[in-house]
What does this fold into?
Amino acid sequence: MTKRRLGLLLGTVLGIILIIAGIIAWRISVALDASAIDTAQTWARLAPFPATARDLHVQFKITFVAPKQDVASWIKMSPGPASAKQSADGSETVYEIAPGGGATSAEVRVDPSTGRVSIDTSWS
It folds into this structure.
């Protein structure tokens, strides 16, 4: 087999692999959206959304309180907040994080005086 044919074969195989990976990523994203909707409908005891519903926005919020030194240590160990742009909003430090894993936004807010942490992520 010539180098050109081998290169063409490898390029074709790589292209097929990339297409398959894209399809898998898309299906995972659709499954996550469906799972989030099912969970919200179950937890809030909601009927299915109207067939005309549009502009779906999926969001998760998590809050917790921990000792200040534990929160500071957790922030340093977390790649997102550790490398994020920081700003202040009243008593809170706001970490605007470059989202990962298919999210479109991610933010962590920490009140250093109380140890309260609020995490807000969304996708779709």
Q: What stands out?
A: The radius of gyration is 21 Å. The mean pLDDT is 81. The first strand starts at residue 58 and ends at 65.
